[in-house]
Amino acid sequence: MDQFLAFTVVGLTTAAIYAVIGSGLVLTHTTAGVFNFAHGAAGMFAAFAYWQLAVGWGWPVPLALAAVLLVLAPAFGLLVERVLMRPVQALGEAERLVMTVALLTGCIALARWIWDPNTPRPLSPFLTDRPALDLGPATVTWHQAITMAAALAIAACLWFLLHRTRAGTEMRASVDDRALAALTGADPLRAGRLAWVLGIQLAAVGGILIAPTVALDAQQLSLLIVSAYTAAVFGRLRSLPLTFLGAVVVGLMEAYLAGYLPQNDYLPGLRLAAPALLLLLALLAFPHRRLRGRDRKLVRVPLPQARGSLVFAGCVVLLAVVLVTVLSEDKVISYGTIFSLGVVALSYVPLAGYAGQISLCQLSIAGIGAVVWGHLGDRGQLWALPAAVLIAAAVGALIALPALRLSGIYLALGTTAFAVILDRWIFTLPAFDVFGVRIAFFDQGSVSVTGPDLFGWHLTSPVQLLLLAAVLLAATSLGVAALRRGRFGRRLIALRDSEAAYATLGGRLLGARVAVFALSAGIAGLGGALYGMQQQTVTAEQFNMIAGLPIFLIAVIGGLGAVGTGLFTGLAFVVPTQLFNELGSWAHDVSALLIALAGMGLAHNPSGVLTGMREEWTPLARDRVLMPVLLGTLAAGWAVTATGLLPGWPVLVAVLAVALTLRSRAAVQLNPTGDVPVEWWGIRRPWRADDGEVLARATAN
After folding, report:
1. Which of 307, 306, 370 has the alpha carbon at shortest distance from 344?
2. Per-residue pLDDT tens for 235-286?
3. For a Cys-Cys bond, which of 302, 345, 462, 530 suits 340, CB 3.0-4.6 Å?
4. What does residue 293 show for φ and ψ, rounded to 5 degrees?
5. pTM to 2 decimals?
C-alpha cells in the first residue's frame, strides 16, 4: 500500500506539470486559434535559462525565477506573436502548423548550439534542504507540494481570467470571429498578445518544474510535450477541467507503469510510448466536428509536363555523375545522401501536396524501409528492395485507417504520436517470432546494411550507391509526375479541395486515403533503404521524429506540390549540413537553425520557392542562343574541376555568376518593354536615358 501511495504521489506531481503545460496549449488554441507544436520547446528554453541563471551564474533562486517567468518568457511570447504568428494568422491551418514546427526545430537547434548537449547540467528540486512532508502513509517532498499547489492555483486563475474578466472574454471572442469581436469594441491584437504571453509563461512554469526530475536535454524536454498533447486532447482543446483530468490520467498511468510494469526486454519502451499511445486513442475516441477542421486556403498544384519531367529526371542523373567525378571518395560518402533523403522528401508530394494530408512520421516510416532491407537484403538480394517498399506501404495503409477520422492539425498530432511510438517502443524491441516468422528491428542497437546485387554486380562503393540512389530518385520523380497527370492524381486534388464534394460525387474517402498513404509510405521506405545502404550502419536515432522535422520543413519551403521538391530537399538539407560540419563542432546545429529560420520566413508562402524559381528560369531554358551558352559554361566548369585544374568552389561561383547573368538577359529579351519594378531597372531591363527623370519626378511627389 505504501508503494502504491508513493507512485500515486509521483503520478499526481507529474500530472500537475502536464496540466500546467496542457492548459497553456488549450489557452493558446482557444484564444488565438493556433495549436503550438513548439510549446514544449518554450518550456525547454525556460528550463535552460533558469539553470543558467541559478546554477551557471549563481543567481538567487527567487531572482532567477522572476527573471525567467516575468521577463524572458513574456518577451519570448510577444516575439512569437508579433514576428511569427501574426503574419500567418489570416492564412490556413497548414501555414500556422509549419510556423510552429519551424519554431520547435529552431528552439532545439539553438539550445543545443548554446548549451553543449554533452555537458551534464543537474538541477536541484526546490527546498531540498527541508524535510519532506508526512501525510499519513505518504511522503511528499517540498518540490512535489509546490508543483501540485502551482497547478491548482494556475487552474483557478485561468478559469477566473477566461470567464470573469473582460480580457478573457476578448480572448475567447477573437478566435471565433476577429472582425465581429472588433466591432463590439474588443481588440483582437491585444487578446492575441495576452494569449501568447500567458501560454509561454505556463510552458515556462512546466519546464522549470519538471527539469529537476529529468535530464536537462533539449530534445527530451521538448518531447515531454507529447504527454501535454494528450491532456489537451482529453479536453478537446477547449476545456480546462477536462485537460486537468487528462493530465491526471497520463501522470498516474506513467507512474503505475514505472512501478508495476513487468521487467523484460519488450516492455520498458511501452512505458515511454504510453503517452503517445494514449494520445492516439484520445484522438480516435473523442469524435467532434472541431477535430475535422480544414484549410480554407488552397494552393494550386503545378501540372508537370511529360517533356519537362524527363528533362528533370535527366538532370538528376547528370548531377549525380558530376558529383562522383568532381568529389573525392570521402566527399561522395558525405554528400551521397542527397538523393536517398530526396526520395524520402518526395513522399510528401503525393500525400501532402496532392491529397492535403499532413504527416510528420515519414522519416520514421523510412526507418522501417531501412530495417527491412537490412535484415532481408543482408546479402544484397534484390527482391528485398521491393519487399521493403511493400512493407513500408503496408504500414502507411495501417496509419490511414484511423486517419479517416482526422484531418488538419489533428492528423498531424496522430502521425506525431505514431512516430513517437515507433521511436520509443517499436524500434527498441528485440527480435521476436510471430506465427513462426522472425521479426527484428534495430535489435536494441544498430543494423548493418549492404548494397544490392544488380545484374551480377554487388553495389557497395559510395560511387555506385550514389548513382543508384540518383537513378531511383529520377524514376520515382517521373512516377510522381505521371501520377499528377493521371486520373488518380486528379482524384487526390479533388479530395484535398473538398472531402464532402469528393464523397458526394461518388469518391471513396477510405480507399483514396489508404492508397495515398500507402503510396507515400512506400516511397519513404524506398528512400530509407537507399539511405541505409549509403550509411552502411543505421540506428533508431537517425529516424526519430525530431530528425524528420527539418526534412519536412525544407519540403514545405520547396513546395509540397512540386515534383522537384525531392531533389531540392536533399540538396538544401545535406549540403549546408556538411559545409557547417567542416567549420567545427560549434557549427553542428547551425544548419538546423537556418532551416528553421527559413521555414519561419517562408511559411506564409504556401506555394513554395520552386514555383517562383521555375518561372524565373523558364525564359533562359527556352532561349535558343543563351541556353547553349549556359550548357557550354557548365560543361567547361565540369571539365576544369574533374581534371583538377582548379578547385571546385571558384568554378562553382563563376558558373553561378554566368547563369544569373544569362537568366537576367533572357528575361529582358523576353519582355523588353514590359513593366519592371523600379528596383530592377538596369537589371531586368537596360537602363534608359529618361529613367533618372522619371525617378526624380516620382520622389518629388
Report:
1. 370
2. 777 777 888 888 888 888 888 887 777 777 777 778 888 888 888 888 877 7
3. 530
4. -60, 145
5. 0.86
